[in-house]
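Final report, results section. Input specification for complex C-07:
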Amino acid sequence: MTYRFPSLNGLKAFEAAARHLSFKAAAAELGVTAGAVSQQVKRLEMSLGIALFRRLPQGLLLTQEGTAYLPEISRAFDVLTDATEAIAPALNGRKLSIGLDPVVVDKLPKGWPRHTNELKPYVREIRATRDVELIWSNEVDALILAEATRHGNLVEQKVCLSGDTAPIYFVTRPGLAECRQSRAILEALTS
Amino acid sequence: MTYRFPSLNGLKAFEAAARHLSFKAAAAELGVTAGAVSQQVKRLEMSLGIALFRRLPQGLLLTQEGTAYLPEISRAFDVLTDATEAIAPALNGRKLSIGLDPVVVDKLPKGWPRHTNELKPYVREIRATRDVELIWSNEVDALILAEATRHGNLVEQKVCLSGDTAPIYFVTRPGLAECRQSRAILEALTS
DNA sequence: GGAAGAGACTGAGATTTTCTGAGTCTCGCG
DNA sequence: CGCGAGACTCAGAAAATCTCAGTCTCTTCC
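Structure output:
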């Protein structure tokens, strides 16, 4: 299958513009300038060798092909959106599941129990475990460990506690390391 | 809907890699290097906050999420492919429909009838018309006109015939102007 | 046990794609 | 006829993506 795909940006631009019948409105929706949308759609039309819009002075009009294309493209985007939302609910607002190495518990700052309360908006549960496997199986989102794992593919952040005890480690998948939730947890640990 | 889409490249990389369970094989299919696929997939995983693959020394393995994701993504791509193929059959091998302005016929090189024979692989039909509308409605792919249209959005190529008659114009939608088919026609006109 | 091979990863720099910003054009309206 | 709206173009800026070279781990084969 050597079929060369039209670009996703082009299709998104087309989809938005076709719904609004306006490049300007589509640009606003996509958060770019109208010129960008115009260029995207033109590139798409060029790569297809087909006119999707009629540019009339009064505004845009879909050609017959554009009319036929739109519902299909929308449907495909819906499939992508639904599938994505199903496996990876937007991080925004999602509560993490944390694995806490039993060995670490003693080392935690004495204010920790109070902090766990403040973390409620960000944390769904705290399990006693040090099993890195649970990260890969997506059963927990992060681990708080006593020792570095030296496990490639994982993000490991060393945390130096206030006392002069040994450091502990906050371990997550890439992509979760910098999210709001992780930052809140790290802050609670260091304070 | 402020949902930020995972990038198409990332999804394509994921889809190919998941089918092959190999970044290297996916890279070959996509015509890029393995490093590029690796980076694409990693970016995708980061943007989702989810691990899609387990990287084992023995090779790749889909996580549970990856397994659930794959068929949906494939399906969406199928929809895009089918819809695209339906409205815009790959240019490669497609025969064009040409509109020939009756006024131009006399001016054509005397070898033209012979050329129309040679153009068969590229041309489906030649209609007598000078109606620019037919380009926009995708009823014809190009026009051969006696006069310039000064019609924005169309590509107009001036053709100077061998005699010292007035030039004629080859008019197409953007995207069709440089294709093999158009070049063959232009060549037949000028020779 | 060691050498060689396979496949994935990373970082830097090159390349390509996409976006912006300013200016132009056409049309419809007052 | 001057204005405003919306689409277009071009050049340059910015961002995303790719390649390349080198590293690492594990497996296989002497």
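Residues 7, 9, 32-33, 35-36, 39-40, 43, 56-58, 152-153 of chain A lie near DNA strand C (CB under 10 Å from a C1'). Chain A has two domains: 8-87, 96-190. This concludes the modelling results for the funded period.
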